[in-house]
Write a structure and sequence with these properties.
The protein has 20 helices and 21 strands. The chain is α+β, with helices and mostly antiparallel strands. A hairpin with a 2-residue loop joins β11 and β12. InterPro entries: MFS_trans_sf, POT_fam, PTR2_symporter_CS.
Amino acid sequence: MADKEEQRTKKTKNSPSCLGYPVSIFFIVVNEFCERFSYYGMKAVLVLYFKYFIGWDNDLSTTIYHTFVALCYLTPILGAIIADSWLGKFKTIVYLSIVYTIGQVIMAISAIHDITDTNRDGTPDNMTFHTAMSMLGLMLIALGTGGIKPCVAAFGGDQFEEHQEKQRSTFFSIFYLSINAGSLLSTLITPILRAQECGIYSKQSCFPLAFGVPAALMVVALIVFIAGHSMYIMESPKGNILLRVMKCIGFAIKNRFNHRSQQHPKREHWMDWAEEKYDKLLIAQVKMVLKVLFLYIPLPMFWALFDQQGSRWTLQATTMDGNFGAFIIQPDQMQIVNPILIVIMVPIMDSAVYPLIKKCHINFTPLRRMTVGMLLAALAFVAAALLQIQIDQTMPNFPSSSQIQVKFLNLENTSVPVEVEGQEPFAVPGFDSSNDYMTLDTENITVSAGGKNATAYFQKSTRHTVLINTDGMLQTLNDITEKPNQGMNAIRFVNGFRSHLNFTIKSDNLGPIAPLQGSGYLSVPHGKANFTIVNEEGQTCHYILQLGFGSSYTVLIPSTFSFGESCTENIKAIQDIEPNGIHMAWQVIQYFLMTCGEVVFSVTGLDFSYAQAPSNMKSVLQAGWLLTVAVGNIIVLIVAEAGSLPDQWAEYVLFASLLVAVSIIFAVMAYFYTYMDPMEIEAKFMDLEPEEKKRKELGMTTKDNLAYVNNETSNNTDDKQTKI
């Protein structure tokens, strides 16, 4: 033991320092910033990658997203065991970072649509390849990011000596500031990268760049961390306390089962059945840990709601208006509201709200704070449900599986009477369409237009526009049956000019369109769309259409159209699907409520847990806390996959109701909870132990535990506890 301390001291003396800090910590801080940028950058765009690139629906996208997040919070237990019992922290971080980097690179490759786009139409021809690659990449990322999660902060704590407590505290402040910075910047930047268009043969949303930049940052993180190798203080594995606790619990259960007959006297606590193998001090410490872990049982429900910011709330934002005047907010960028509010709310709560409550002589205990945090999260989902109801009112009613929808477009200047079998007759104005889609429960309809009859056959669950004139029905156009993806707008042209026309915008071309025919749809982004109309003689007309988010238009070029300065006067833009009408800014309300809940719940929960646990078992509670996050995400994927609620707002209400119910249960559990003083309990049992055994069981607080202790005592570390 003395030799080991002497070896460590010698290495410390040779380690370079700057302003009283080990130079090695700067490598660790840069590594953490890059790694957090990599993780949160990739995670910010992940659910939209599933929806828009892979082509999954909202439920499956949500399910896979939360499966990935759950794995990211299950693997830290494995990483801690590997580091403490086998490889040590440094090798564990390096090896799993390599796995992590490979996973990020695979994700970037999986998003390159040109790899399997053999016909160069912009759509991958082998989606199985892209899906398999992305699943492999995500599994490696989950193993990597989760495995290094419990090691990096503790490894940073290892770089300090016992007399450097002040420097260590400052280090943890800087360390968690780097987490905040990485999270903020990546959540801002990667959605912008995703919104760009890139590709070799065809331009699509640039998911390869959105995943590629985080992959590059992970490469930088790995290189920087390895570069500081010669300066690190590296301690040998000392054994994992979590494994020892699990073995003690396992032996107690086994011993109790083996002595379950009535002839064996009962013991005060079921953990007392471990006394045959383990000393009373360890058993007392395990009892304290189990008492806190029991309170963890209701906590996963909070995380079930909290982590939907990156899935359901992001998908909700795709149906909203992201126009903020001078700039456009992408749906996945709304997640940045949470880290921004965290930085603002933590000091406000600590310096204003809590002291004010104390002055009012309200006993706002940690467990009561956590209960309030859970209720605030439930309230956030009520706000999300109310917002969803407003969004649903602006969404078009598409046909069900047994219906068809039809509208009529008149290519003539005069009104044309129309009769549909079984419906009231109506007239379609000149150069215009019927007011709305007609919903019919049949596959064929008989139409009388301009005095002539015709029968049209349609597949169910489809939408159509029927072109008519005074001579009767001309042609049927197939309309889209869902809102355009990614806030784009679906634009098509109908040529009523009776000569061939070409329509172009930027590098995209529609045409030539024959007379009395319609074009396919062109996907056009938000803003002013400048279309160029060209006839066979080369004459041009520039037509500008102001577009919102998620709309669909049919642009009619009437028979009265003519080229010249006033060529756009007679062009008629008919709106088939309205643009998104609810602004994304309304989501700030639910983000604010959720962030307040996070600050009150998460920061307080960690502080309470560590205060109630033995000094050498902080890591056990850290593992238990991370496990509640994993279970919460599993709850989401079960509800998303197995739930049969027809409306999204109803699912939000369901989650809010479940959390309210769980909050009541937690409040009851908290009411009967008796606060402990772990040091006092440990001291009582230490008086019964031989001096040498005391040192063996408790010893001096390890650097791992100092990492957790400093984590809680530093004000700045609270800024992003849930981002660890």
